[in-house]
Amino acid sequence: QVQFVESGGGLVHAGGSLRLSCAVSGIPFPRTLMSWFARNSEKELRLVAGINEDGDRGYYTDSTRDRFTISRDNAKSMMFLQMDNLRPNDTAVYYCNTQPPKSSWGQGAQVTVLS
Predict the structure, then answer these.
(1) CA angle centred on 112, ends 17 and 64, rounded to 5°
(2) What is the DSSP letter of 55?
(3) By C-alpha distance, which of 63, 55, 54, 50 is closest to 96?
(4) What are phi and psi of 9, to 5 degrees?
(5) Strand (E) positions, 41-108?
(6) Which residues pair with 90 in a beta bridge?
(7) What pLDDT score does 64 carry?
C-alpha cells in the first residue's frame, strides 16, 4: 500500500525559508506525477506545486511561483519542496501525494509563518 511520510516543517518568521521532504513507498515512484498540497486552518486543501515523472518540470500556482521550488530524487523515492520568502498565509499542514491524489494521506508537516 502507498505510504507518504512528510518532514521538515517548522516555525519561521515572514521572509524565512523551510525545506520539506517526502518519502514515498508502495508505488512506482519514478513513473508517478507528484504534488504538494496544503491544508489551512479552515481545512481547505489546495494544490501548492507539482512535478513531472522525470523531475525536469515543476508546476506552481500564482502564489507559489518564484518562491517555492519542487524537486524529486527518483533513486530514493523522495520529493522536496524548498520554500523561500514565506508569508503568514503560507501557514498550513503540507502533504505530498500523487497527482491526482490517492485517498491515503500522510501525517503532513506543519508550517507556521509568523508576521
Answers:
(1) 55
(2) S
(3) 50
(4) -70, 175
(5) 45-51, 58-60, 68-73, 78-83, 92-98
(6) none
(7) 97
**28 prior amide bond cis, ω within 30:** no
3-state class (DSSP) for residue 114: strand
pLDDT in tens, 53-112: 999 999 999 999 999 999 999 999 999 999 999 999 999 999 999 999 999 999 999 999
CA distance 29 to 111: 25
The pairing of strands 3-7 and 109-114 is: unpaired
Report, as an integer, the average pLDDT of 37-59.
96
Write the single-letter amino acid at 13: H
- Return the closest-CA partner of residue 91 out of 109, 108, 112, 107: 112
Nearest to 82 by CA among 60, 105, 54: 60
Cell of 55: 523531475
Determine the Cα–Cα distance for residues 65 and 69; give it in Å rounded to an integer. 8
Q: Are 82 and 68 in contact (CB under 8 A)?
A: yes
The label of the residue with cell 494544490 reads 47
